[in-house]
Amino acid sequence: MPTLSLSTNVPVDAVVAADILKDCSRALAKIIGKPESYVMVSINGSVPMSFAASEEPTAYGEVVSIGGIGPGVNGKLSAALAEILETKLSVSRSRFYIKFDDVKGHNFGFNGSTF
Q1: Which parts pass through the membrane (predicted)?
Q2: Which domains does the chain possess?
C-alpha cells in the first residue's frame, strides 16, 4: 500500500505525467521492497508554490507506507525521486522536499477494510 503524492508548481502534461507515474511507481516498489501492484502514485502540477521565497520550479512529496521505509531507505528513495523530477520537470534536487510516514496497518484502509 505504499503511496506517493507529489505536488509541483511546474505544469505537467498528460505524457510527462504518465512517465513520472511509471518511473516513480517502479522506483518506490524497488527501493522499499513492496510489490508494484500495491503502489499508488499521484502528481498534481501547476500548484501555486514557492520555495525560499521563489516561484522557480519546486516540488513537495509525501510517501506513506506500512513498513519498508526508514533511515536506511529514505535517503535512497529521496535521491531516486529527486532524479526523476529533475529529469522530467527540471526541478532541482535542492528545491524538493519529501516527507516519509511509516503507518500502522490499522490506520490505512483498502478494499473496505484496514490492513
Answers
A1: none
A2: 2-114 (3.30.429.10)
